[in-house]
Design goal:
Number of strands: 3
Strand order of the largest sheet: 1-3-2
Helix content: 55-70%
Order of helices and strands: HEHHEHEHHHHH
Number of helices: 9
Structural class: mainly alpha
Shape: globular
Distance between the termini: 20 Å
């Protein structure tokens, strides 16, 4: 399995853990929420879905809306297929979430991992963030050394491009430092709170309408409280995408 296909499988399992989706909706979420997948096509997504179904991590179900099925039948097409995560698929995704090895620090894989930090345990988040920072600090040191050796041989534009690349890495290192400090502060706040402050016997807990996942509180405690802080998901597209007719066919 290539690294990129592994990242795509991870992202598909993560999105379907939230709710079942059909192919077009899943592709739209990958495009809008995870920018690293903006360039991929149905020709990439559907083989991935078929592989996940074959391994038993997903199942295919017919669309639930009767009018959709009727419209597809009248048009001579098959109804849209909805993909649902199985129990084995959920277990596999949780195993992937617990992994914090070097591949989780690379550019594309880190972006996908960060998008699902809300479902990731705090200690795993810390290892991924610290690993990513270490990787970028190594990259930055190499860039500085290369620039120092070649500065005299570069024209002004090439030199400016190299400086721009270094500044981009430096900005991400500062961002990671802020995230790591916030994660530590959130952990310290939870670790120093008095027993029973937030969990008392008979306490009904947060209202059901909040729909919190097990790790939502950890995730919110860890993020910086600044207006410009990065979020795991991108902004939704302002322009509705035109449905792709190929979505209605079985690949």
């Amino acid at each position: 399995m290539s690294r990129r296909s592994g990242i795509l499988e991870f992202a598909v399992l993560g999105l379907l853990r939230e709710s079942p989706m059909h192919g077009y909706e899943l592709r739209k979420r990958l495009n809008t929420s995870l920018g690293i997948f903006r360039a991929f096509s149905y020709g990439t997504l559907y083989p991935c879905l078929k592989t996940l179904v074959a391994t038993g991590w997903l199942i295919e179900e017919p669309g639930s809306a009767p009018e959709d099925a009727l419209a597809a039948s009248l048009a001579g097409r098959r109804a849209k297929i909805v993909y649902r995560l199985t129990a084995d698929g959920k277990e596999h995704f949780e195993e992937l979430l617990a992994h914090a090895g070097p591949d989780a620090w690379e550019d594309e894989h880190f972006a996908a991992r960060f998008a699902f930090f809300g479902q990731t345990e705090r200690d795993v988040r810390m290892r991924v963030l610290e690993g990513r920072r270490s990787r970028l600090e190594e990259r930055l040191e190499k860039m500085r050394g290369s620039l120092a050796r070649t500065r005299e041989r570069l024209d002004d534009y090439t030199l400016e491009l190299q400086r721009h690349g270094m500044e981009s890495v430096e900005r991400e290192v500062r961002w990671l430092n802020e995230l790591i400090e916030s994660e530590r502060a959130g952990r310290d706040r939870r670790g120093t709170s008095e027993p029973g402050d937030t969990e008392r016997a008979g306490d009904p807990g947060p209202p059901a309408a909040e729909h919190r996942t097990p790790h939502d509180t950890d995730h919110m405690d860890g993020l910086p409280r600044r207006g410009g802080a990065a979020t795991a998901e991108g902004s939704p597209s302002r322009h509705p995408a035109t449905p792709d007719p190929s979505d209605d066919r079985t690949k």
